[in-house]
Amino acid sequence: KMDDDDDDIPQLSSHTLAALQEFYLEQQQREGMKTSQGFNQYSIGSIEEDWQLSQFWYSDETASCLANEAVVAAGKGGRIACVSAPSVYQKLKEQDGKDFSVCILEYDRRFSVYGEEFIFYDYNHPLNLPENLLPHSFDIVIADPPYLSEECLQKTAETIRYLTKGKILLCTGAIMEEQAAKHLGVKICKFIPKHSRNLANEFRCYVNYASGLD
Q1: Per the UniProt entry, what is one GO biological process (predicted)?
Q2: Is the dihedral of CA 9, 12, 14, 18 positive or negative?
Q3: Residue closest to 192 by CA, chosen among 171, 164, 211, 175
Q4: 36 Cβ contact list (under 8 Å, min separation 6)
Q5: Of 102, 112, 125, 162, which sits with the fewest C-beta atoms within 10 Å of its C-beta?
Q6: Domain residue limits, the chain
Q7: Are strands 187-188 and 203-207 parallel, antiparallel or unpaired?
């Protein structure tokens, strides 16, 4: 028998309600910061990481270090491709006006806000790329495959080899050292990248050229 009163409707506890209101307030404040004057749409955090897509942003210091390395490695007027490495792309865009060009290959379509520099990329189809993305047209490719599996690395490596004129900067787990050498001929660097949130797996950088990361 249906009861006429609302006693059975679940109510949020005052503690849960307060926590929820605080969450929404923080969200509104973040949105307010984004729309307020002076917000840089390219800054890290302007698009929040999505763990379901295996996204983990670098710390500000790491993203800056990798971006600066890419600029030096690319050289004056160089072209840089960021494959599944959006926080490095964002740091590169903060250096607006510098003498280099950059594009981002990324599965997450939220990054399409960056216009023509955004190229939708699914590592399962490594060479499914736009016709205007010519082979060996980037001075350096910096890549961070989304998953720590040989299959993911192998497929991403196909993309990297297609894009690069030669230089490769790979960021992935320490456990992938052997596979990274096998598929891309890269060696581990002394520089240890950090993320804005601590990851369970040890993370490292790999290069195939004389870099500033040692």
Answers
A1: methylation
A2: negative
A3: 171
A4: none
A5: 125
A6: 51-207
A7: antiparallel
CA-CA-CA-CA torsion for 59, 60, 63, 64, nearest 10 degrees? -150
pLDDT per position as a tens digit, 62-95 = 999 999 999 999 999 999 999 999 989 989 999 8
A 10 A CB-CB count for 170 gives: 27
Tens of pLDDT along 5-54?
555 555 666 766 666 666 556 555 554 444 433 344 544 444 554 444 44
Give Cβ neighbours of residue 81 (< 8 Å, ≥ 6 apart).
102, 103, 104, 105, 138, 140, 141, 142, 163, 164
Q: Return the axis-axis angle of helices 177-184 and 150-163, rounded to nearest 10°.
A: 30
Question: 51-207 adopts what CATH topology?
Answer: Rossmann fold (3.40.50)
